[in-house]
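Appendix B, record 7
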Amino acid sequence: MRTDATHDPALQSWVASANGEGTDFPIQNLPFGRFRRAGTQEPWRIGVAIGDQVLDLRAARDEGRWSAEVAAALAPLAAGDLNTFMGAGSAPRRAVRAALSQALAQGSPQQQALASCLLPQSGIELTVPCAIGDYTDFYTGIHHATTVGRLFRPDNPLLPNYQWVPIGYHGRSSSIVASGHPVRRPLGQAKAADAPQPSFGASQRLDYEVELGFLIGPGNPLGQPIAIGEAEEHLFGVTLFNDWSARDIQPWEYQPLGPFLSKNFGSTISPWVVTMEALAPFRAPLQRPAGSAQPLPYLDSQATREQGAIAVRLEAWLQTAAMRAAGEAPVRLSSARADEAAFWTPAQLVAHHTSGGCNLQPGDLFGSGTLSGPAPDQAGSLLELTSGGKEAIRLPNGETRSFLADGDTLILRGACERAGARRIGFGECAGTVLPALA
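Structure tokens (predicted):
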């Protein structure tokens, strides 16, 4: 959680586009991703986003001048293996970050050598940033949980365990796709309240969920829990995450074992991983409603209370097919702060997930759950924005939406801003809805 010279807001890069006020990727960020040149079948490479460019770490390892420590840390990245780098821990990560920051800074003697290692982001394609072995989705957004609970249990919106245990379920990693990949409307069983039996067909209540994704760095041996005080060391970085949801399939299938087909048809992740080091200036206190129970000791520490949350502004944007055809820009549906929405911190999720002995591995993904703010316009899903589909929202072009239509493109954006720090962003997490196959 410490800041250093790499976070200096006055630091400028010889990559001119990294110095623009609107960029998500200034030199203070340096997120990792997997890419290849567009239109090729080249092996996926690991790169670092800097302005509107990407630094190819395979080429940079060969062309740059690095210390023995940094050269060794760059070896798996040059081989296209982000997971091995993730599993190496925070010390190599900090060393690489410091070396890249110095090499990309204005006046660096590395400029001539590394300039040839840059590719424009407009000429590349990106994929899921690492190999995701396992995926767990949590339910940390207390305002989302309360609002949704009130739709189904007006007198008892939050179940008694919510404030004691981080609620989660194991998801399907094979259907996680990178931003830009379309998502097909799922088929499944649904049962109307007045129907004598369920029916099978395309979901009519397709929704999105505004989430953060937390990627694991070093894992832990089976049977060995990770203590809350050590949990931060097992976190590599953060992405945007959209856990698409079929709201008509979900209530019929989720009792008693939880979501299944309503969630496993697709989840979208942003392709750039913002490291925990880059997020150091934006750590925030854990905020909970007055009167909330104190966490049990295995989930509690001074550090997680004082700096465990991450101050990220999250936004959801929608562009319908009609808007796209007319050349109209996406419209913002909501905006909320992650640190004002989450009841549990990433470190608490790691400590709880492993408390029974579960072994995590580099590249495992935790979804935060929907991060909605307390106000109606801060809702992170259409389920909330439309009161369960009862109150359709009207778009500027006159269209209305209760849930997503075929051809809709849903875009998540996120950024960290704070006085005395340079703004950093996550890039986009976008997906377009395709019609069901049947």
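Remarks on this record: The chain is about 20% helix and 25% strand. Residues 190 and 251 are 8 Å apart (CA to CA).
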